[in-house]
């Protein structure tokens, strides 16, 4: 699930990336907004999902994927869209356009 929160006084959105991976022992968010460096996600026992928040500039689109256990790449079924990644697959896409 992607949850977006927009600020009235800032040109950025706080995006919460949230996904259940029941068989993974670690999950990282990796995207062009992290220079494709893994950002560890925290597991919420209460909700049974991995979560992380990122602040991103508004009115842009960003590619990302999840990295499970340091070796398995996974797309987000709740992504705003998908784009070809040039490696024979797709990346997830998050759009930070304000929806007024």
Automatic annotation (TrEMBL):
<protein>
    <submittedName>
        <fullName>Isoamylase early set domain-containing protein</fullName>
    </submittedName>
</protein>
<dbReference type="Pfam" id="PF02922">
    <property type="entry name" value="CBM_48"/>
</dbReference>
<feature type="domain" description="Glycoside hydrolase family 13 N-terminal">
    <location>
        <begin position="13"/>
        <end position="82"/>
    </location>
</feature>
<dbReference type="InterPro" id="IPR013783">
    <property type="entry name" value="Ig-like_fold"/>
</dbReference>
<dbReference type="InterPro" id="IPR014756">
    <property type="entry name" value="Ig_E-set"/>
</dbReference>
<dbReference type="InterPro" id="IPR004193">
    <property type="entry name" value="Glyco_hydro_13_N"/>
</dbReference>
């Amino acid at each position: 699930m992607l949850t977006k929160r927009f600020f009235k006084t800032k040109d950025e959105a706080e995006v919460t990336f949230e996904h259940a991976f029941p068989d993974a022992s670690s999950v990282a968010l990796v995207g062009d907004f992290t220079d494709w460096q893994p950002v560890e996600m925290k597991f919420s026992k209460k909700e049974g999902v991995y979560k992380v928040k990122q602040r991103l500039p508004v009115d842009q689109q960003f590619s990302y994927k999840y990295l499970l256990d340091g070796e398995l790449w996974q797309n987000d079924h709740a992504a705003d869209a998908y784009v070809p990644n040039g490696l024979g697959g797709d990346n997830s896409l998050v759009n930070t356009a304000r929806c007024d």
